[in-house]
Amino acid sequence: MGNEESSIGLYPGSAWESWLIQDRYCRKGTCFASEAGTYDNSSGTQGGIQMPADLSGFMLGLDLKGNPATRHLDRMWLNGAIVENVSLALLESQKIKYPGGQTSPFFAGCLSLGGRRAINQSFSQDDGPAINASLVPGWMWEHEWTRSSSFGMHIGSVQPDISGSLWFGGYDQNRVIGEVLNMNGGPRDGITLRDIGIDVIGTKSPFEFDSKDGLLANGNSSIGGSLKVLVDGCSPYFTLPRSTCDSIAAHLPVKFNKDLGLYIWDTKSDRYKEIINSASALSFSFISNSNTDPIKIRVPFMHLNLTLSAPLSDKPTPYFPCHSNGKDQYVLGRAFLQDAFVGANWHPDIDTWWLAQAPGPNIQATPNVVSIGERDKTVSKGGNDWKVSWSGVWDDQEAPSSTPTADSTDKKGDTKGNEEGSKEDDQEDDKVGMSVGAKAGIGAGIAAAVIAAGVGVFLCWRRRRNQPQEESTTEPVATVDESKLPSVVLYPQELPSQEVQPPYYQRFELPS
């Protein structure tokens, strides 16, 4: 941001403005946000914009405290392209407030993926012309770098290791499994959640059943037959009615922590080890404009064994990420997006976003990238099978005797705080779950140094209009010399580097 040497780690998922944490947020020089990087607001300009950015636009579904953010404009380096006057919202001292009154600082800001029916964000002025701030996918399309103002994303996970994928102007078809849900607007405009259930995919169930439906509205007649939920990559949990979380938790060895509005795993229970390693998943059933029968997206329990750390917990504490806080805004955040593909075409005449099942760890190492056309209304699934993509990763035969520990994944790079926490805690039960939660970039109290772990950002570049059009939108993959590429706003990534090939299109992986 501002110059090529300034890299800042961001969660991907905001709409309209990108949210950055200012240097002054860390008043004593360092704080949790320092690991991801903070922004020097002497770069760029406020641009005469008088309207503040309300905190409700940052992390949906959470109770955020503090003054509205300050709007700002600055340039953003996106490997070979400089996006000028990007719409920003700067955070100075704001925090997350939990139901018990405890507050937690932010660990990172959030990258905007565009805005509904817009290529920029316009701010009217009483005494002059409107001020236009750039949105990255709109700018890329308007300046002919991509075929459309669009994106395709699968956040992925750290444990098991599933490298993330974020493309502007296209998507990795390998990340799309099964039927695709099509909705008007963008992910933050919401989708109808019809039900939540528990599905056992393996031959041995860690539950007293093989499937359990009806958990969404169980014990709460006011929910009726469905619930509108928003999808937000800036938010960490799935924020749902307390009755829904309790219905799910009734089948798990967890205990509700009323101060945090979260559920803590009972690591001393034998069922804990069985469930988090089993071939079972929490299933979310959706309906939309494109389907009359509900479509399921499954999140394995292996992905729902996350870890709280400082400042929310004085030692690493495994938790189940169903969150309740009384706000009556229901959100599926990064805990859900570990296993979901999401994308959108922001063209004013298209105004469509997509949701689909994403695969597990066993997928092709080479992305199968497809450009999104200017007026494309849907995306196409790839050839992966979801169950096969998890084969050999989870235990679908019998309960394991142990679970992964922090030591097994330290190669990914934990922060000192989590390393010290694991050294202090010699009990095996307390170590359980560290490999997931301490590094997954999902809990509000996780290590900021790994906030974007496994998430790569890519651009589907567009040829100039004076060159002939291609018939196919599927493009081959090659490599590029990363040492020649500038620093950018999101890091790190593990997908293969990309290069300019064929001559009409370019595709690059953004470096860390």
UniProtKB/TrEMBL annotation:
Keywords: Membrane, Transmembrane, Transmembrane helix. InterPro entries: Immunoregulatory_rcpt-like, PEPTIDASE_A1, Peptidase_aspartic_dom_sf. It is found in: Membrane. It comes from the Eukaryota. It is a single-pass membrane protein. Residues 376-431 are annotated as: Disordered. GO terms for cellular component: cell periphery; membrane. The chain crosses the membrane at residues 440-461. Residues 133-343 form the Peptidase A1 domain. Gene3D superfamilies: Acid Proteases (2.40.70.10). Residues 408-421 have a biased composition (Basic and acidic residues). This is Peptidase A1 domain-containing protein.
